[in-house]
Structure formats: structure tokens, C-alpha cells
Design brief:
The protein folds into 2 domains: 137 residues, Fructose-1,6-Bisphosphatase, Chain A, domain 1, CATH 3.30.540; 110 residues, D-Maltodextrin-Binding Protein, domain 2 (3-Layer(aba) Sandwich), CATH 3.40.190.80. It has 8 helices and 12 strands. Helix 1 packs antiparallel against helix 2 and helix 5 runs parallel beside helix 6. D-MYO-inositol-1-phosphate binds next to strand 2.
């Protein structure tokens, strides 16, 4: 598997930040049992990881823009390239000692996602994709699942929680989807959810109320694995709407149709 120079830069940044998160995750696991809990420690770990990623990426491409969750956006003098970064996706998992979290780095060119890296340091799984080059986990090529029917499909979803999202709307979508799907999972790190769809581990995924850094790398990963992603109406306004629906051709459509059904009476 040949990687472009740019993808290599992204991989190096993700691995370096991942190493730092790994060390901090070990400490978080120790702090689980303390009364104070690991809260402050986690926000430090998060900011440290973003600093590492930002420095690595801007060292390699000083003119590119940078949109990261934990710091002010850098516009960059090159108007057509932008890094979109979540240094720690799955913060609640990380905080609770659950090993499902990732560093997520996407590269946007002229408004289109062209490369993505999603790295889970706890499992040492490195998901990579670039336009025209396919998607991989470590050295293995990824392909979305071939299941055609929701009745065979395992569907991932992001659950809203305290202070986040439209709970009533989500419950209606969930009610519709749970009546049709073989299984539902909510794993708590949107970037990895999308990588899992690219890997065919889950057949589809939907979530509303997301930010660009949750989805940027996953969008190219899904596409390069032969899948589709869109907003809830099937359009391309994923970042603007904060909604993503993903899967293979059949599940992507079926999931939108089912989740979009009107509110049931009674
Ligand atoms: C969150 C995770 C989670 C999703 C939330 C995101 P964070 O990102 O991706 O799976 O349900 O909506 O905000 O806060 O852990 O970076
Ligand atoms: Ca996130
Ligand atoms: Ca985050």
C-alpha cells in the first residue's frame, strides 16, 4: 500500500498524538477509582493531543488552514486546503476508561474531503484513506459490507445526551430503525463509527448534531471503501446540517427512508 507524502504527514501526526493519548489513558484508568475523577486530566490530554497534531501538520504545510476542536481556527494563506481535526474523539469513553476513542484528521481540498486518518491508540488500529487510493486499516484494504437489507444489518447511531441534541426527534428515528434492523450499536466515537462502516463491521450509521471534525476523515474513508454518505435528505450538506447517514448503496438509502418516516400516531 503506497501512501502519498501528505497522507504520511497525517499518519505521523496521528501516531504521535496517539502516543500521548495512550500514556494519558493509562493514568485515566488509574484515576477512575478516585473520587475527584479524571475530568481535568482529560481536558489537558485533549489539548495536548491537538497541539501535537497542529504542530506536526503546520510544520509540513505551513500555508494550509487548520480547523481543530480545541483551538481557534487558523485560516491559512492557501485558501483551498484545510486540515479538519478532532484530537480526541470519544472523550466520554476516554474519561470512563472505555478503549473506543481516536485521533481524527481530515484534509479538505477545494471544499472536498480528499484524505483521512483515524487512529485508535488503544487498539492500535490505524484507518487511512485518500482519494483514488482506497481505504485501509493498518495494511488491510477496506470495503463496506454487502448486506442489502436492514433486516440483516447492524446499524450504528450516536445517541444524544444531557445538553446535546433533539432527544424527541432521535427517539422517533430510533423507534423506526429499531423495528427494521438486525441490531443497533452506539459506540460513542463518531469518527470510529464511520471507520467501522468503511470496514464493513457495521452496515450503516447515522447521527445528527455532529461537527465537521467528527466526520471529516470518515467521509473520505467511507467513499474510498465503496460506500456513500450524505445528510438526512441525501444531499451533500453534511457539515452544514451536522447530520451524516452512511452505508453501502442499499443501506444508505434504506436508513434515510426509515429514519425520515413521519412521527407515528398514538
Ligand atoms: C463526540 C463523539 C460521540 C458523538 C458526539 C461527539 P467528542 O465527540 O463523536 O460519538 O455522539 O456527538 O460530540 O466530544 O468525544 O470529541
Ligand atoms: Ca468528536
Ligand atoms: Ca473531541
Amino acid at each position: 500500500m503506497a501512501r502519498s507524502a501528505l497522507l504520511n504527514v497525517m499518519v505521523q501526526a496521528a501516531l504521535k498524538a496517539g502516543k500521548s493519548l495512550s500514556r494519558d489513558f493509562g493514568e485515566v484508568q488509574n484515576l477512575q477509582v478516585s473520587l475527584k475523577g479524571p475530568g481535568n486530566y482529560v481536558s489537558q490530554a485533549d489539548r495536548k493531543a491537538e497541539k501535537i497534531v497542529r504542530e506536526e501538520l503546520l510544520k509540513a504545510r505551513p500555508t494550509y488552514g487548520f480547523l481543530g476542536e480545541e483551538s481557534e481556527e487558523i485560516k491559512g494563506t492557501d485558501g483551498s486546503h484545510r486540515w479538519i481535526v478532532d484530537p480526541l474523539d470519544g472523550t466520554t469513553n476516554f474519561l470512563h476508561g472505555i478503549p473506543q476513542f481516536a485521533v481524527s484528521i481530515g484534509l479538505e481540498r477545494g471544499g472536498e474531503m480528499v484524505a483521512g486518518v483515524i487512529y485508535n491508540p488503544a487498539s492500535d488500529e490505524l484507518f487511512t484513506a485518500e482519494r483514488g487510493g482506497g481505504a485501509y486499516v493498518n495494511d488491510r484494504r477496506l470495503r463496506v459490507s454487502a448486506r442489502k437489507s436492514l433486516s440483516d444489518a447492524v446499524i450504528g447511531c450516536g445517541m444524544p445526551h444531557l445538553g446535546h441534541g433533539m432527544h424527541g426527534r432521535y427517539l422517533i428515528q430510533l423507534r423506526h430503525v429499531m423495528g427494521e434492523a438486525a441490531g443497533l450499536r452506539s459506540l460513542g466515537a463518531a469518527s470510529l463509527d464511520l471507520a467501522f462502516v468503511a470496514a464493513g463491521r457495521m452496515d450503516g450509521f447515522w447521527e445528527e448534531g455532529l461537527s465537521p471534525w467528527d466526520m471529516a476523515a470518515g467521509i473520505v474513508m467511507i467513499r474510498e471503501a465503496g460506500g456513500f454518505s450524505s445528510d438526512m435528505d441525501g444531499g451533500a450538506d453534511i457539515f452544514g446540517s451536522g447530520t451524516i447517514v452512511a452505508g453501502n448503496e442499499h443501506i444508505h438509502k434504506a436508513l434515510r427512508d426509515v429514519a425520515n418516516r413521519p412521527v407515528p400516531k398514538g
